[in-house]
Amino acid sequence: MSRPLPVALVQAPPRLATDPLSGFAEDVGGVLARFPQTRLVAYPELHLCGTDGPPAESESRLRDAAEPLDGPRVRQLAELAGDLGVWLFPGTVCERGPAGELFNTALAFSPEGRLAAHYRKVFPWRPFEPYAPGDRFVVLDLPDTGRVGFAICYDAWFPEVARHLAWMGAEVIVNPVMTTSADRAQELVLARANAIVNQVYVVSVNTAGPLGTGRSLVVDPEGRVRVQAADSAPTVLTDVLDLDDVTRVRTFGTAGLNRMWNQFTEADAPIDLPLYDGRLDPRRWHVTDN
C-alpha cells in the first residue's frame, strides 16, 4: 500500500510588518495553482509576524502583533485553509498566552477550515528570543494519511523533541525555521540525524534571503535527502512523501538492518536516566497511538 502526502515547502522571506497577512491568500493560492496536487503547504517560522528591521524594533513589533489563538489572525487563516481545501501550516506566529506571556506557536489548519493543532516552541533560542517555553509535544493526524509532529527551529537541536514525537507516532516532523545565522550547516546534519535515529521524515522549511539562510530540505526515514534548496533564494520545494516508507523502515530496519523501536525484550531491565530523574522502561519502548 501507499500513503502519499504531496507537500509544498515555501522558502520565502518574512512578510512585511505593516500588514503581514496582506497578499498571503494570493501567495498560497499561487502555490496551489502551480502545484495543484499539493495537500500540505508549509511556511517558515514567524513568516507572518513582520520581523524585518533591527532586533529591538523587531521584538517590539512581535509584542504588538501578538494575538491569542481565538484572535482575528487565526480566524482568517482558518478561513483561508477552508477556502483552498488544503492543510495549511503557515509557519509560526507570536501568540499571547492566557497570562499575557508570549509563545512562538506553530499552527496547523485543516482543509475544513479549522485550527486543527497548535504547538508552542519548547526550546526558545535563548538568550536571543523573548518567548516563554511550551510545555508539551504535539502530533496531528491527517485522516487517511498519517501523523505529523511539530518542532520549531531550535527544537531540532534537542534530541528529546524528535524522539518524543516519534514515540507519539509521528511519521513526519515539520520543522519551520527562521535561521539567519551561520549554523544552518549544522541544522542540515541534525535534520538527517533526527530522521535516522527516529525513522521519520523530517521537513525543514527555512526563511529565504536576504534575512534567512534558506537551504530548506526534505529527509526520508533512512536519512537520505530527497530534495533541498541550493541556497537562500526564494523557492518552493515540492515532494510526495509516502508515509508507508516509515512503516517499511521500522519493520525491516534502516538499510534493512537497524530496528531501533524493537530494541528491547520483555526480559530486559529498565535503565535509569538520572538526567531526567526517570528511566527508560523496555515495556514502554515502542511507538504509541496516544
From TrEMBL:
**Residues annotated as transmembrane:** none
Keyword list, A-Z: ATP-binding, Hydrolase, Nucleotide-binding
InterPro entries to which the protein is assigned, alphabetical: Aliph_Amidase/BUP, C-N_Hydrolase, C-N_Hydrolase_sf
Record bears the keyword ATP-binding: yes
Instruction: Extract the GO molecular function terms from the UniProt entry.
Output: ATP binding; hydrolase activity
* Keyword Metal-binding set for record: no
Where is each CN hydrolase domain found?
Answer: 5-243
Q: Which CDD domains match?
A: nitrilase
PANTHER family tied to this protein: FORMAMIDASE (PTHR43674:SF15), NITRILASE C965.09-RELATED (PTHR43674)
Q: What is this protein called?
A: Carbon-nitrogen hydrolase family protein
Q: Which organism is it from?
A: Streptomyces hyaluromycini
